[in-house]
Amino acid sequence: MAGLNYKLTISIHKKSNNVCLAGIKDITIYKALPYMNQPLKVISFGTILDCKDEWLVNLIESVKAKEVGNALVVEQKIEKEVETVEPDA
Q1: Helices marked H in the chain — which ranges?
Q2: What is the pTM of this model?
Q3: What's the gap between Cα 62 and its chain centre?
Q4: d(CA 38, CA 8)
Q5: Residue 34 gets which letter from DSSP?
Q6: Displacement of CA 81 from its chain's centroid (Å)
Q7: Sign of the Cα pseudo-torsion (72, 78, 82, 83, in order)
Q8: How far apart are CA 18 and CA 81, in angstroms?
Q9: What is the pLDDT along the chain (89 residues), one digit of tens a residue?
């Protein structure tokens, strides 16, 4: 069938304190092409990972570092926009 396969890795966190509950590696989702009018399908559920799994811990740390970096970039853009909008007094 014509379509795309997406391979995902997810970690599940408790909302109240952001504690990792579990992870799942290599979930395969199939998405048919738009003209086929078919929903997404889970092809395979992959491997369940413990939150202490070194690979998952490293992945979560990497994502957190990227989030901090992205937040700093956005903050810098906002500061530049404010500088251009507000004239010096």
Answers
A1: 54-85
A2: 0.58
A3: 11
A4: 20
A5: G
A6: 28
A7: positive
A8: 32
A9: 678 999 999 888 888 888 889 999 999 999 988 878 888 899 999 999 999 999 888 988 888 888 888 888 888 888 877 776 656 55
